[in-house]
Design a protein that fits this description.
This protein folds into 3 domains: 322 residues, Alpha-Beta Barrel (TIM Barrel), CATH 3.20.20.300; 193 residues, Glycoside hydrolase family 3 C-terminal domain (Rossmann fold, 3-Layer(aba) Sandwich); 116 residues, Immunoglobulin-like, CATH 2.60.40. The strands form 8 sheets. The chain has a 6-stranded mixed sheet, with helices on both faces. Strands 20-19-24-25 form a 4-stranded antiparallel sheet, with no helix packed on it. It has a 3-stranded parallel sheet with strand order 3-5-8. It is 28% helix and 18% strand. With 696 residues, the chain is α/β, with parallel strands linked by helices.
Length: 696
Amino acid sequence: MEIYRDKTKTCEERAHDLVSKMTLLERCEQLKFGAPAIERLSVEAYNWWNEGLHGVARAGVGTMFPQAIGLAASFDEELLRTVAEVISIECRAKYNEYSKKGDRDIYKGLTLWSPNINIFRDPRWGRGHETYGEDPYLTSRLGCAFVKGIQGDGEYLRAAACAKHFAVHSGPEALRHEFDAVADPKDMEETYLPAFEALVKEAKVEGVMGAYNRTNGEPCCGSEYLHKKLVEWGFDGYFVSDCWAIKDFHENHHVTATPEESVALALKNGCDVNCGSTYLMVYKAYQDGLISEEEITEAAEHLMRTRMRLGMFDETEFDSLSYMDVESKEHLDISLEAGRNACVLLKNDGILPLDPEKIGTIGVIGPNAQSRKALMGNYHGTASRYITILEGIQDAFPGRVLFSEGCDLFRDRIEGLALPGDRIAEAQIVAEHSDVVVLCLGLDETLEGEQGDASNTDASGDKLTLNLPDSQRLLVKKVMEIGKPTVIILVSGSSLNVETEPNALLQAFYPGSEGGKAVAEILFGKTSPCGKLPVTFYKDVKKLPDFTDYSMRYRTYRNERAEDDNVLFPFGFGLSYGDVSVESADVKDCEEVIKADVKLKNSGRETADVLEVYFRSTSPDAVRNHALCSFKKVKLGKNEEKTVSIEIKKSALTVVNAEGRRYFDENAKTTLYFGTSQPDELSERLTGKKCVKVEL
């Protein structure tokens, strides 16, 4: 038996044997993202490019979960792992079925280029909603959970996850193909690299994707510094370029002069497969003496090793998965649960939950009320059924529901031949005839997203302002003038300022195909909201640092200047229909971890909430304010008291000096804060609660 067919051998041994039987030209061709078949070796054609950010994307029907930023709002590792398990089951099921038909097209493989674990450092970044927010600890925990769910823990990988975009990528989108993101050693170690390190070391992520930009002068898909980091962390998967990023080396970054030189720079620094076309020149680069046969062979072996780990040459325990496992009722129920957890209640004067027995008519108004795009986010698949917010309310409310679109998402009129504001009068009429108004506002992937995908061409998918589009600002003003009790549902992937004071404000992010049902359940009290903001919501973009400044000095909740008073709602904030507070925390030092027994009390109705633990250090190398170091989703019954055990790893209490060295400062005083929000003044004012403080 050929070694590469022998299941008793390691994947490394099998890959080495298989590649040794390929000609050099065949090895070169395997480094393309659309790799051809080698029939004599039983190597099937394979396309490496597939997406699974919040559901299997771009290849037909699949369960659509809330966008990644909404999943992050859950602050729930177990939920993230469950969601990822579903995604990988559906990915494998679709792969099995497509393969039987000989369909090995793009978006139909087992290598999912997710999750996006870049840090959402600036609310203007259009792709920020693909991430898990602004905090590196939260990102690393949720990212690890997602990877473990995708890959599973069996003999073979159920699917292969990919950590992207390595590294320091977070806008501006318009400059990404030429920009040099400069970050000092402290910011690299403290903010930009921890999640990648965690996914490599802890979750054993199978893939890593390089970013378009340069980092400190080196293009990320050909960076000696970043490649050495992966080696240092023990990465043994495959490295892929972002799509057409390698041609940027010579066309935009100008660090090389020719495609062949770009091939050499990327391959020598660990880029195994090229999403793009530059690796068509691999053999030419070899002929020119720019790369060696050994370097080509090593990359090919890495790719075959991943395919071996996925069981592509064997029978596996996943072969029985079929299309009946795609978008099943069980999977849709998980999407609904994720949608409930994605919603963050930012304001409530007592109007919520709505009591149907006291309301005759509800007016639902706004461009995102009946919009399917408002449920999706980007990098989405196709659901067989979508429940919009309007439909969710109509299904849940026994009384009369009136509807007006009110305005276009961003244009000044809906009908092309009409005058500007052609639905404003209708919106006001609906409001006048309603007991309660639900205003559905925000954005969708056409206004915030990736360069080339979003139709927001002025900023290539980024946001120029934190305000709503002018069409919606006018709608809000005119509807609020009617004076009816108003709930605003904000559907967006990032921070927005509605510039008004509704009775309640619910941030739904992009809540998935079941999102309208999830929102309605919260509005009418069937479910208590329990999400927390994974990003800070700001008032004014003009008070933020320059978008191109990658220093973390005045960015995110960990380093903000309190005196700026530019925060609307802080990271980690979110209300519920319960009344959960931390009563006490009993802390015990256990060498590698701090163990804490935390007493929680719920003085209100049944709800879930998040126990958040932050630390502050007096070390001169600590972040300016405080930093998340542990969290746990907790369910509490009406008027229930519960003691919850939680661990804080000592590694999460470290600080980073100017040279980028991480350490635990024994000479500093470390304080832990236990609560359901940050230990900052604004969170205390918004929640009416203080965190329990424990000094170590």
